[in-house]
Amino acid sequence: MRYTTLGRSGLTVSRACLGTMNFGTSGGGACEETEAARIVDAFLDAGGNIIDTADGYTGGQSEEIVGRAVKSRRDQVVLATKAFLPQGPGPNDRGLSRIHLTKALESSLRRLGTDYIDLYQCHQWDDSTPIEETMATLDGFVRSGKVRYLGCSNFSAAQIVESQWAAQRTNAAPFISLQPQYSLVARGIEAEILPACRRHGLGTLVWSPLGGGVLTGRYRRGVVPDADSRMGRLKASALPMARAWADGLLNEPNLDIAGHVVETAAELGMTPAAVALAWVRHRPGVTSVIIGPRTLEQFHGNLAGLAKELPSETIAHLDEISRSAGTTIVNGMSTPR
């Protein structure tokens, strides 16, 4: 397992990050607790140390499952979670206000069964709350010892800059990380977001490196996705946002790119998923790659893919065929994640 520091901090994290959005059986989850615990143990045994969850994943089940799974090995884990998503019906039950973040943090600590969180992240931007209020509130968490480092997810370049400037103005702890979407079919962060991260001291924990599963070669033109696949579940979702996200990924350009990945994998004797993951790991500005397995078998396949080295000519070919590809999602409001 390779390691590096996260952003402009002394926090060391593994180049693979275990994402747990699938842990649980409610709210779209597809991984029972027993299997999730096996995945967590295998990840830590392999030398991985950063595990990411969120209060909005599977109705809170993900945090509960992660907390129980790491309880006996808590000191080995960089535990990351996120807040923003609705936690109730009230007007103050969502967002990045002081009132909501304070309640959300206490709830996450309870579900995770811990008294501190290593990396506490804003799940997305909140237009209705002054960023100075958010950063001052988060700084209070750090000063209290309940949080050690701060990060954000799905922020635009301008929002990153605003946040870091607000932290400076209020003498507050800054963000050290960003979680952006990034893959061969989602390269929108390269133009402005990755440069902003470099300038303002943020490492990156990139999510959906397999393009929602599109880059595994599982989906074909004119073929309805299997009901048990991620795209199948999204297309059957009652949420219009989820259906739109699936339709946006399963478009002609992205399926063309997936076809090239399948061909490249066959030439190299690799799986398509391994090719897609290895490409992401090679990219400048990527600190750690979030993998979100539903089974232990998927976990081992993903970890093996991240360890692969691609020939330079293969990287150049994949860069070229994906350069104009299209799913550019930089705001969590646009995705069901």
TrEMBL record:
Transmembrane segments: none annotated. InterPro entries: AKR_Detox_Biosynth, NAD(P)_OxRdtase_dom_sf, NADP_OxRdtase_dom. Residues 17-322 form the NADP-dependent oxidoreductase domain. Keywords: Oxidoreductase. SUPFAM superfamilies: NAD(P)-linked oxidoreductase. One of its GO terms (molecular function) is oxidoreductase activity. GO terms for cellular component: cytosol. The keyword Oxidoreductase applies. Gene3D superfamilies: NADP-dependent oxidoreductase domain (3.20.20.100). This is Aldo/keto reductase. It comes from Planotetraspora kaengkrachanensis.
